[in-house]
Specification:
It is a single chain. The chain is of the alpha+beta class. It is built from two helices and seven strands.
């Protein structure tokens, strides 16, 4: 499982898809989530605006599993 470090309180699922190179632009997030089952903490989620916080685990088909980690100050 790969760690994704964030500087803010949260990152959206759409932003995470772009950060992991699952999509090439933010505009593709809606389409990607309609065509693929993305799991957030073990449950399917298709909301590109879903807020991901420290400790959340995201499984993206074709890209891998990622754990959101708050960057240390």
């Amino acid at each position: 499982m790969e760690e994704i470090r964030i500087d803010s309180e949260f990152v959206t699922l759409g932003q995470l898809l772009k950060m992991t190179d699952a999509i090439s632009s933010g505009g593709m997030a809606k389409w990607f989530l309609q065509e693929n089952q993305v799991y957030v903490n073990g449950e399917v989620d298709d909301r590109r605006g879903r807020k991901l916080r420290d400790g959340d685990v995201v499984n993206i088909p074709g890209a891998g599993r990622f754990k959101v980690m708050q960057r240390e100050a």
